[in-house]
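Batch job 17 of 40 flagged for manual review because the log was empty.
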Amino acid sequence: MKKIVGLSFVCASILIAQDSVDIGTISIEEKANTKIVKNVSSEQIKSADLAEALTKNIPSVSLVRRSGIANDIILRGAKKDNINILVDDSKIYGACPNRMDPTTSHILTNNIDSIEIVEGPFDVENFGTLSGLVKVKTKEPTEKLSGDFNLNFGSFGYKKTSFSVSGGNEYIKVLLSGSKEESDPYRDGDGNNFFEQQIYHGIPPMNRYKSSDMEAYDKKTVLAKTIINLDDSSELKLSYTANRSDNILYPNTPMDADYDDSNIYTVEYTKRDLGEYSKELNFEYYYSDVDHPMSTTLRNNGAMMMTNHMKSSIWGTKLKNSFDLLEGTLLAGLDTSERSWKGKYYNRMNSYIRDSISDTDTTNKAAFLKYEKSFGNLDLEIGTRYDRTSIDTENAAMLDKDYNALNGHIFAVYNFDADTKLFAGIGKSERVPDARELYIVSSTGAVQGNDNLDSVKNREIDLGFEKTIGDFNIKTKVHYSNLDDYIYNVNGTTFQNIDAKIYGMEVSGYYLFSENLIFDYGVSYLRGKKDEAILGQTDRDLAEIPPLKGTLSVSYDFGDSQLITQMIASKGWSNYDIDNGEQELGGYTVFNAKYNHKISKNFDITLGVDNIFDKTYASTNTYNDIRYIGAGNTELLNDPGRYAYINLKISF
């Protein structure tokens, strides 16, 4: 199925089985449990925040608001290490134990070509995919000389410039892309900036900013990529991504990021048609590192410049080979990686107080198989993976850990006809504890990690169908996840294994009113429950389970111009874990609009307004897995109020 439907990003849905929808310059290809969003750099131009772009446009993704940039995501109730996020098939882990620099913050939308989202435990190729996989693909070089330059201005002093240039020949293609952006603190719907929100929410004076007149962040990126065609059947791909961020403000936590620097290096070699038992051979190597000091320097209590300087890195290799077997395709692979994480506390009077995380290495070795075959109208995928993981710490007072795991899944799609599809999947996956959960120590020396943690196990079943009736499309999906030894933060004091359940339902689709006009809709509902309340507590609600969320958009394409209007609505938080810091939050409805006009072949302009009616709301709850300031209202951070922007683009 292929339809021209205007410029909406929201009409992406989860349940189309092997469909492709062209939305202006955006193309979204899908399987039953997979969504692939293309041309991200061309359309997500409001800001470079990947988390915000995903949240606005995908019902099953919710935002964890931490700042004006570098925000995090929740995918179907899963967050942090419970979802796997890859950049060009490489891993990068943020260094901050307080999630100031999640993986989504190390790659910006202007460098992204496509995003693939796999929901559930249906991935055996990558280490640690517990409840979902987000695969970010950066832009690819082209043989033809081409490029673009963008100039963007927005509310709250936002300024951004970006460029991209690509070219080559039949033997080698090269791409260079870069950007620089900066912004003042945004204002919420009541007109309060970060400093004024601190006063309004009752943050103690000593934890407030020294001044209301400061920049919220400054961010620069570079992407360089080369593809070398070695011969007709093999290619070598090299890429480098750099992110440099300075003075990022986090107003509802005790510290801000002095800087956040990261690097991602990837090498990929592909050889096709080696013989009967090798249709495609692929070798990948990657290395990434993050340098992240956070401090109290910008606060009234910052005279001592208390700092927690964190560093992380990971390298990995993967060898994959696919070949035809029994009228299907078998993929076999070996995977290994080593993640390092360390940090230390210091201040202006003492260059070393203690380790926050003593140098810890997490080493994984794995083998996996995946087999795909069609039996008439039935498409079947079976996968399995075996992992051996060791975690070694330099802290002699704490235990090293070893974990072994055998996981797998079965996923099937039955095509009744071209317009009706039914699918079902069942799978088991695991992820090991990270160094923070096992070993972290506070600045006062209190041990907050738990070196007796088991790995988390997810046993999940997904069911759904997709139906197209004329110009109307509907997709539904239900999922039920049984989590054994789920790692939970006990009110900011330590971590504990618990048993829990997460279940939910999603409905989405579109209606083609005409060739130029489309309505898109999406609704996501989730519930999460602990099997038993934690010892000493009574609340069985699972934290970070967003309430009912819906999206509705109308897209109209009239020649050289496109207009998109969008509504995002969320029910209030009525189910929340009060014992572990969460609180009741009101619901909200916000309206956004974007207008694009192509002035000439090489020049276009985009005008947009988010939160048109200047609604005051907070989308993110206050689970104490993050160290906030105080408790209750002092932990809150309101989302941005009305935000207007303009983008000028020159292309060649």
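Reviewer: the log was empty due to a logging misconfiguration, but the result itself is present. The two ends are 31 Å apart (CA to CA). Unflagging and moving on to job 18.
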